[in-house]
Write a structure and sequence with these properties.
The protein has one domain. Helices cover 16% and strands 33% of the residues. The structure holds zinc ion.
Length: 315
């Protein structure tokens, strides 16, 4: 049903690469030698999600400054996953929970080994339980995390998808591109839906993949372009709406691509991971709200010391 039109991968030891050309800015159309700044000025995939090596040459400094608001909202939306996964942003691993709140997660590195420190204060009967049959210990860690603006976070995803579009496709996405210049503007009509899935890998490697999928049959009633962003232990998918080829596509569908990836191990080689069936979020609103997960449940086997973390979405 779909054909892959672009894919960009970033791994911890990737060589530096550059997308686009320095002729004019892809987003605002500006031209001129002084508008772009350093070659490493604009990250094609967010630096805060671990990208150190993939840059966009065709994003001007002014647009890059403007778009940082979107990127920040996206990182806030998945803050607890970045903490748990130990993803290093520009200023280290993100913290979740204020130091004086009753629930905190911290990621630290001691003697080269990653450590996760989870503190939860409250009624132990409610937070901790032991399954008498299996002996498994379960600890519920409530997380408040950050407040984010859903529409901005959506636009961060749209912008990354747009940055990877082949040049001949750009004319079909003028509305979405123009909307990036005005912080609050909607990139397209209809709800701004996001499919969100996660995989639990205790130590999420800073591996990222952006993928654009285009529908194969011109008149099929499915989105013309889908964009998927895999970042460590989380994966997003959106319908990147074209100006002219999506009017006949019903709104009712869900974003349900099941993604699997081969993630690099820090010591070399790869391990396969599968992401969950995507949760469906509507990120149309401009009203700030708390990030989408109210707690994480840690299930721990005291015999084997194996543990598993499961996010619990807000009701
Ligand atoms: Zn620009």
């Amino acid at each position: 049903m779909y054909v892959q039109v672009a894919q960009e991968l970033v791994e911890p030891d990737s060589a530096r690469r550059f997308l686009g050309e320095r002729t004019c800015c892809r987003y605002c159309g500006a031209i001129g030698p002084g508008i772009f700044g350093k070659q490493t000025n604009a990250h094609a995939l967010p630096a805060a999600l671990g990208n150190r090596t993939l840059f966009s040459l065709d994003e001007c400094k002014a647009c890059n400054d403007k778009f940082s608001v979107y990127e920040d909202a996206l990182c806030k939306a998945v803050g607890p996953f970045l903490t748990l996964g130990g993803v290093r942003g520009r200023s280290g691993v993100r913290k979740t929970g204020q130091s004086r709140s009753n629930s905190r997660m911290r990621h630290t590195t001691l003697d080269g080994k990653r450590q996760l420190n989870i503190a939860s204060e409250g009624d132990a009967d409610k937070l901790v339980s032991v399954d008498q049959a299996t002996g498994l210990l379960s600890l519920t860690v409530p997380v408040e995390g950050d407040v984010f603006v859903p529409r901005y976070a959506y636009k961060a995803l749209a912008k990354i998808g747009l940055s990877m579009l082949p040049a001949e496709e750009l004319q079909r996405f003028r509305k979405a591109i123009a909307s990036l210049q005005n912080l609050d503007a909607e990139p397209n009509g209809g709800p701004l839906k996001v499919g969100f899935s996660y995989a639990y890998v205790g130590n999420a490697p800073p591996a990222l993949a952006g993928t654009l999928l285009r529908r194969r049959e011109y008149h099929a009633p499915v989105p013309y372009m889908l964009f998927l962003l895999m970042a460590g232990s989380v994966c997003f998918q959106i319908w990147l709406r074209s100006d002219d080829l999506d009017a006949h596509v019903p709104e009712t569908g869900r974003l349900g691509i099941r993604f699997t990836a081969q993630l690099p191990k820090p010591e070399g080689d790869y391990f396969p991971i599968s992401y969950s069936d995507p949760l469906q979020f509507d990120w149309s609103e401009l009203t700030p709200r708390l990030q989408p997960f109210e707690a994480f449940e840690l299930t721990f086997n005291p015999q084997t010391t194996e543990g598993n973390l499961r996010p619990i979405p807000r009701a």
